[in-house]
Amino acid sequence: MDSKAPPTLASIAERVGVSVNTVSRALRAPNTVRPQLRQRINAAIEELNYVPNRLAGGLSATRSDIVGVVVASLYHSEFASIVDALQAALLTQNLQVMLANTRYDPDQEERLVRSVLSWRPVAVAIVGIDHPAKVSVLLKAAGVPIVEMWDVGGPVIDSGVGFDHVAVGRAQAMHLIERGYRRLAFLGSLRDNDRRAYKRLQGVREAVSAAGLGEIAVATMPHPGSPDLGEALATELLAQSPEIDAIVCNSDVVAFGVLRALRKLDRKVPSEVGVVGFGDNPASSCLTPSLTTIRPDREAIGRLSGEVVIARLNGEEGRVCFADWSLVERESTSS
């Protein structure tokens, strides 16, 4: 983590060659500052990665007791149990969670990270390691511990807690291949800012290639994962490629729709088509057939993330922690 102190109004003023009061006015009442000067001040703010301090003038402390928590989705409670376990760990030290949801939108991620940092949190926990370039710069310049959660398949800014999504994709594909499936497809929601899904697709491709099975079919759309999306994509996929005999889904809720489509198409599961999901949604064991899936240890990710935040605040070095995951075999891939 960058150990330099975050930029201040004074450093902006020094860069532009004006008073601190002038910079303050440009932020609070921009219409009172000449347009050309305002442009120079805004340019310095961008260059120095300055984030306004919302605590200034309101509290005597320069830091709050807040830990900013930035997740990519609250849809189908994908990260709810992580946040719950993280909050429980932080509350032992009287630290409070400020939650932000980016909805996989890179522009919204930058806006929300700026907003969270403006409250001068003591630390930030954020989903993923692949951020928009400006977000990475802001986090590195924040001067507080940064814990990247859910994915540790690459370099981290400061600390990380999660697992390797490429390895998960390989495991999904190998499970199907070992059970005799040969014509695999990857199906589901695939958004530009969801690099974890791309990594799982990469893992599927690697396993299929290593098995000498050629290219996989890919059916995706950049929309939130849902049963309706899964059904629509599976129906179209099988109309175009009826030889497909196994489908890797990028989430369980998408797999629910795939199973519905297969039932409507009278394609028997698992004898004609095998299906594997990701996430181990609570409903996955209740379906008929029940869904084979990947079970990430979300509670451990949240708890470990909280422990890493606390350790960093106590002066310990940043570190990477690997959380467990497992493949849960159910009826959708075995009789």
Can you walk through the features of this model?
The chain is built from eleven helices and twelve strands. It is an alpha/beta fold and 335 residues long. The protein folds into three domains: 1-50, lambda repressor-like DNA-binding domains (434 Repressor (Amino-terminal Domain), Orthogonal Bundle), CATH 1.10.260.40; 55-163 and 299-324, Rossmann fold (3-Layer(aba) Sandwich); 165-296, 3-Layer(aba) Sandwich (Rossmann fold), CATH 3.40.50. A six-stranded parallel sheet has the order 2-1-3-4-5-11, sandwiched between helices. Helix 1 (9-16) packs across helix 3 (35-48), helix 4 (80-91) runs parallel beside helix 11 and helix 5 (106-118) packs parallel to helix 6. It is elongated. It starts with 8 loop residues before the first helix and ends in a 7-residue tail after the last strand.
